[in-house]
Amino acid sequence: MDNASVLERLRAAFPQGLGESSEAHNDLSVYVEREALLDVAQFLRDDPELRYEFLENLCGVDYLGREPRFEVVYHLTSLVNRHRICLKVGAPEHNPTVPSLTIFWPTANWQERETYDLLGVVFAGHPSLERILMPDEWEGHPLRKDVPLGDEEVAFSFNQDQIYARKPFATE
Amino acid sequence: MGIEEKAGDLGVVTTTLETVVNWGRTNAMWPLLFGLACCAIEMMGSQASNYDLSRFGMELNRASPRQADLMIVAGRVSRKMAPVVRRLYDQMSDPKWVIAMGDCASCGGVFNNYAIVQGVDEVIPVDVYVAGCPPRPEALIDGIMMLHEKVKREKISGKKDGASIRVNAGEMIHLHL
Amino acid sequence: MTITGEPQTIEQRTEKPVRRMAEYAATPLTVPSPKQITEPAHAGQTETMVLNMGPHHPSTHGVLRLVLELDGEKVVNVAPDVGFLHTGIEKTMESKTYQKAVVLTDRTDYLAPLSNNLSYVLAVEKLLDCEIPERVQVARVLLAELTRIGSHLVWLGTHALDLAAMSAFLYAFREREQILDIFELVSGARMMTSYFRVGGLAYDLPADFLPTVAAFLNDMPANIDEYEDLLTTNPLWLERTVGVGAVNADDAIAYGLSGANLRATGVSMDMRAMTPYCGYETYDFDIPVGEKGDIYDRYRVRMAEMRQSVKIAWQAHQRLVDIGPGPYMTENRKIAPPPKSEITHSMESLIHHFKLWTEGFRVPRGDAYVGIESPRGILGTYIVSDGSPKPYRVHLRAPSFINLQALQHMSRGGMVADLVALVASLDPVLGEVDR
Predict the structure, then answer these.
(1) Chain B within 8 Å of C307 (Cβ-Cβ)?
(2) CATH of the domain at B120
(3) Three-state SS for A39?
(4) Is A155 close to B121, i.e. CB distance below 8 A?
(5) Which of A118, A144, A157, C17 is the most buried (most CB within 10 A)?
């Protein structure tokens, strides 16, 4: 299967709900509206010709200053056709909610939790949307673009005395 | 028994109790079976066939902190892991020593960011720092040898004096290998 | 255990029925979170207890915490708790230039640093759309296969150690040291090589590289026989692994398993054949697959993979001999730093060099995803570029992270001791799980 025939079949099944598509670097990627995501994902998985059974990757991107601010990216792979399709779903800043794909792929569970933990995108319908990598009491979502890296001043020979004076060295 | 046969006519050996105790401690120093990240693989490498840490009586890793004397912090310590490391250290019985293996454990290394504690000495007191990313097994063995030298100088009275024994991070022992 | 070529088994899979929603409802595949099993779920009926394992535990292969719900010695439920090694690698990469970020990729999956380099470098090269010399491609294949052998050796050693077979560990590390010596030869570092750079390699291959590799590859098949002698028909080993922790192909795909864990179930998905990179389609190799998807099949698949890696490495070795000396970097001076000899007498080269190492090269706007076959499974890198010299977003699709989700599904109903074997057979690297 090539990009054009996959896209044609997808557009025929969903006259509405799909946004623009791109074939940059020979990879097919399609923008999907949030409301249509579940239907599109199920179609891609269950369609006997397409059979994108393998959810390979799920991640989020924070496009600060753009609307919608967040974008969740899904990479689905068809083992039979040896083809990969990329779905992109936007989520606005005031309501960064995207439907959860855990009902179709249990593998989405941790990847959605990670995206929630690091970027603050909420996945509606996720069975246990909690922090996964950061401690529970952590505030904020570190991968967001408006959160600083959180680096500390590095000690060199000219400033190490000042830094070590205020560094909280542990005692017994 | 065997000792008389081997010692022959040696008779009586006199030494200080301190020397005997420190000698015993250096030759049966049991590390905590505890690895964090990349450095743990080099630590495994130093215990495996080629480098064979058991030559120094150091191969017997204890899985329980209660039975361990030495904690080798092999790898980066994250903010989520830091309380666990401290707890493990507190559970170790005295006397106990700590080696910060690698750049991440010593000073944060290449990971100067929100997630990593910039040096495990913010969490637990460190005796020897071993530089390298990750340090070669030779470097770790040299660090352990240095710790042995340090232990041999310890006083028997009371517990370890953290302030005087801790190698200041400013005078970090660099092992360029 | 069958060893088949890749296309046949993919076709076989088309015979199987497509999984529908109703089937999911009947047999829910779930991934519990640690908080969900703090209270015994079957209070009143049976006495189950909740037990904590880790994050410091010798058989969790790193700082993995498992919350277990046990009925006696039987595992009722298990929830992995990860994040104890979260390093913020993805965020840190956003603050580095494309060249400098290579260094951080080494430290995700620290058993296979060169595979991580490769995945990242291929993704950047996809965005740049630059030509890579044939010699570099072959060298990358050769080193990636050596990485696979080295990583599988650590898996073998620690897996056997977890099941109380100490000698395999010592044997495996003996050969791993040889591989590390080869890495040291080419890059100067044993583990954190950062040898693959965007556009090529960091330095040229040294003169004694090929003889050293040939000596290693000559010995390796006999060494693999030695490991197999220790374990493959060992009754204790069979008792602990055969039929334990089995998963079928459909569930494995639903859980997103990849690498040897997926191939052990009979699905021959290998990125080297699915979406070939670095010219893997021109090499002659088989993809070993299992049948039952249990621990023993995973063991057999990985052992067979090591033999296949030796086979690929020999082919790459022969090609390097045939090609002879040549470029180790792309000709594109926008990416490749100028050679040292030019810097001393060419002003332009000096400026290029300065700009490359202070500012870095700019990568065209867009996004790219590359998935490669790392020793643990599909290692994907998704990069978003905003046209600046620093990546806007890097996401690493870590195979260990995703493989670990199936732990509960595989271990339910088994014994606690089997759980130890199961974690080892999944071969997670916690640096990659937590990134």
Answers:
(1) no
(2) 3.40.50.12280
(3) helix
(4) no
(5) A118
Confidence of residue C418 (pLDDT cuts 50, 70, 90): confident
Q: Which two tokens stand for residue B80?
A: 């989520």
- pLDDT over 90 at C183, yes or no: yes
- Selecting from B33, B38, B45 the residue whose C-beta is nearest the C-beta of C173 gives B45
Element containing residue B7 per DSSP (H, E): helix B2-7
In the predicted model, what is the mean pLDDT of residues A147-158?
A: 86
- Please indicate if any CB of chain C lies within 8 Å of the CB of A82: yes
B69 within a domain of the structure (yes/no): yes
Count of domains observed in chain A: 1
Which domains does chain C possess? 89-129+132-329+364-434 (1.10.645.10)
Please tell me whether the peptide bond between C55 and the residue prior to it is cis, using omega within 30 degrees of 0: yes
User: Which string of b and e fits A94-111 if b means at least 16 CB within 10 Å?
Assistant: eebebbbbbbbbbbbbbb
Identify the residue with better confidence: A168 or A62.
Answer: A62
Helix ranges, chain A (H): 3-13, 37-46, 108-119, 160-166
Q: Do B122 and A142 touch (CB under 8 A)?
A: no
The mean pLDDT value for C215-237 works out to: 89
Domain residues for the domain of B76 are: 27-144
Contact (CB<8Å) B159/A172 = yes
Between CA C10 and CA C405 the distance in angstroms is: 24
Note the pLDDT tens digit of each residue in C383-395.
999 989 999 999 9
What ipTM does this complex have?
A: 0.93
* B121 contacts A142? CB cut-off 8 A: no
Summarised one tens digit per residue, pLDDT across range A79-108 is 888 889 999 999 998 989 999 998 888 899
Q: For residue C173, give the nearest of B50, B84, B134 by CB distance.
A: B50
pLDDT band, very low/low/confident/very high, at C116 (cuts 50, 70, 90): very high
Q: Are C1 and C300 in contact (CB under 8 A)?
A: yes
- Burial degree of A80 (CB within 10 A; 0-12, 13-18, 19+): middle
Domains contained in chain B, number: 1
Inter-chain touch B115–A142, beta carbons under 8 Å: yes
Mean per-residue pLDDT, C363-372: 92
- Chains A and C: how many Cβ contacts under 8 Å? 126
Q: Which residue of chain C comes nearest to A119, CA vs CA?
A: C91
Asked, for residue A124, whether it belongs to a domain, the answer is yes
Note the pTM of the prediction, 2 decimals.
0.89
**Is B125's CB within 8 Å of A155's CB?**
no
- Percent of chain C at pLDDT exceeding 70: 91
Q: Per the domain annotation, does A23 fall within a domain? A: yes
Q: Which chains touch A (3 or more CB pairs under 8 A)?
A: B, C
B12's CB contacts (< 8 A; 6+ apart) are none
- As a whole number, mean pLDDT of residues C131-147 equals 92
Contact check, Cβ <8 Å, C111/B50 = no
Confidence of residue C10 (pLDDT cuts 50, 70, 90): very low
Q: Which residues of A touch C88 (CB under 8 A)?
A: 142, 149-150
